[in-house]
């Protein structure tokens, strides 16, 4: 094995890769925000006492959890525009795919957190005369939130990794930029190793941040 | 019991019959096919202290929890200060609907202390006691704080205000729970086996607080297995069995001279019980 | 919305999709089996007394967990010829890539299982005078397999979804056929929706099994 590693052609194109990294962060951030919104709505529907609300939400969640993300990307980019007779740019399609998919997962995180709060807490709050809204806001959600942190972070990591699929729609995130650099330099190993390292750094720093946040939220224990 | 619980019969058991503040009529509760409460008629007057005893699974908790609508009665009516709660639908007197706002107002007036305390672990002791005042009664923080501190002082925890409940002993937690309920200035207090989940050496401190409340003349209902305490605490004792009030009377009548065979058999199981 | 869904096309193209579906199965099951077997070896390395083995396996596992699968597949596609000196078909490269990824996640499942079982039973087995390896094989592992069954099933679900990424390497599996057909006929809505449904039918039973197993174990515990 006498492969000559040569990173210099890749490293000289760092502005391209930096651009990709920023786009990755951008698309991940947007998708997390929308994913959380979708997840909240779905979780509320799934926790509703009305079956007519619970059932469609459950079907939606199960469908997204049991189909591959790349199908969602292509479906939003190619299939949906045909039906609606519109055109979507890659960023919008990717954000739609990511946030609906992660929304389905976030919904389960939120629902699981809420349902993990013991009956005694609901009753303790009710016995004081709190309305449903008050007891959710003051007692249940604050406690559930601390239990949601870990699974929420885990899902968000999956989401960040899934943003790489936006490259298949030719959106200029990190992986797509890497493909561009590769087509100019023909150094695939160097390019993809570099990009993998960038993802690693991104995720490791995110997990450090998440640990700090979690420590703060659970200080009362 | 090691703890010397002083008799509270210092207070005359309301000689003049006061008007009932809580009235229950024809109360039934079904859990699926299980008929737990089978038609209960009952009333409490201001200043009365009622001890409810009975075998495990006889429906003591269910009865108490119906009074503040932690459980919804299957049928029957409950009245507070003479006003029946809920709205019966036309033509179907058994179908009573309870709007959330009404239930919340009732629960403000009927406080409850649970076997498992149910303190809010993410709030300090003081915040726990203030929570109902601030969120439900919409009281100003400063005022709520003052009242919460007063109640915490009363239960002997004025020095633990900034601690989280997880750091307290069971007995201390239950006293915080009592202070939390008291802060709301309820007209009636419901206790569901408040000492059953405590280590024996911690039971006394909680019972002492409850006795102190009795001395203040508060209206209380207590489900308990501490028959010795019930004897001294209560103005009225109820033996619940088979979903009905099997025997009702003064502590002397029910606990010392039970007329019903069933009551006698129940009491005999408490060998260590002495007055 | 006045879009007319072309059922005839779905019927017409279904056999082609099914051919892709078979390739998906050929990717999925072997990579899962190889990956989990390798995962056991990795887990033992993670738990071994040698610092070198522990450190090496940790780095390997984290590399796979903190980078996108798509990049891993692309990287190996280019790297295998250099690393092992043989040009692999896209199918083999994808299969090996998926297996390596699965080994990292599988290792974490095995490690968690072994640690949770071992804590109590190490002493008992030692008292019987068993050797380390015997203990592991006879006492610990059978229980780990049982305890971790829901986690393995869950992994199977993830691998099934990941296998769709092989389409990027032009492996002729389900997603690839879907992409090809939808551009050939220019009916992406029909084709991609069908692809999603086929994936759902493949994956949902595994999810359902995993949920059932989890519930049954929670009931026992
Ligand atoms: N939410 C519920 N759903 C179904 N059955 C219930 C429910 N709550 C109570 N029960 C049943 O109703 C019966 C009465 O229960 P309850 O808790 O009122 O008894 P209890 O007298 O308080 O007993 P203990 O002394 O053990 O606390 C029991 O058989 C119990 O299993
Ligand atoms: Mg009870």
From TrEMBL, chain A:
Compartment(s) of residence: Cell inner membrane; Cell membrane
| Alphabetized InterPro entries for the sequence | AA_ABC_transptr_permease_3TM, ArtM/GltK/GlnP/TcyL/YhdX-like, MetI-like, MetI-like_sf
Residue ranges annotated for the ABC transmembrane type-1 domain, each copy included: 21-210
Q: How does it sit in the membrane?
A: Multi-pass membrane protein
Report if keyword Cell membrane is assigned: yes
Which Gene3D superfamilies does the entry mention?
MetI-like
- From which residue to which does the signal peptide run? none
Q: Where are its TM segments located?
A: 20-45, 73-98, 191-213
Instruction: State whether keyword Transport applies.
Output: yes
Keywords noted in UniProt: Amino-acid transport, Cell membrane, Membrane, Transmembrane, Transmembrane helix, Transport
- Sections of the chain in a coiled coil: none
Q: Which SUPFAM superfamilies match?
A: MetI-like (SSF161098)
Reported function: Part of the binding-protein-dependent transport system for glutamine; probably responsible for the translocation of the substrate across the membrane.
List, alphabetically, the PANTHER family matched. Answer: GLUTAMINE TRANSPORT SYSTEM PERMEASE PROTEIN GLNP, MEMBRANE COMPONENT OF AMINO ACID ABC TRANSPORTER
Concerning its family, UniProt says:
Belongs to the binding-protein-dependent transport system permease family. HisMQ subfamily.
The protein's name in its UniProt record? ABC transporter permease subunit
TrEMBL record, chain C:
Subcellular localization, per the record? Answer: Cell inner membrane; Cell membrane
Could you tell me which InterPro entries the record lists for this protein? Answer: AA_ABC_transptr_permease_3TM, ArtM/GltK/GlnP/TcyL/YhdX-like, MetI-like, MetI-like_sf
Provide this UniProt record's keywords sorted from A to Z. Answer: Amino-acid transport, Cell membrane, Membrane, Transmembrane, Transmembrane helix, Transport
Q: Where are the transmembrane segments?
A: 27-48, 69-88, 191-213
* Top-rank taxon: Bacteria
Q: Which Pfam families match?
A: BPD_transp_1
Report membrane topology.
Multi-pass membrane protein
Q: Which residues form the ABC transmembrane type-1 domain?
A: 21-210
Transmembrane helix among keywords: yes
Annotated coiled-coil positions are none
PROSITE patterns for the chain: ABC_TM1
Looking up NCBIfam families in the UniProt record yields: HEQRo_perm_3TM
Which family, according to UniProt?
Answer: Belongs to the binding-protein-dependent transport system permease family. HisMQ subfamily.
Outline what the protein does.
Part of the binding-protein-dependent transport system for glutamine; probably responsible for the translocation of the substrate across the membrane.
What is the recorded name of this protein? ABC transporter permease subunit
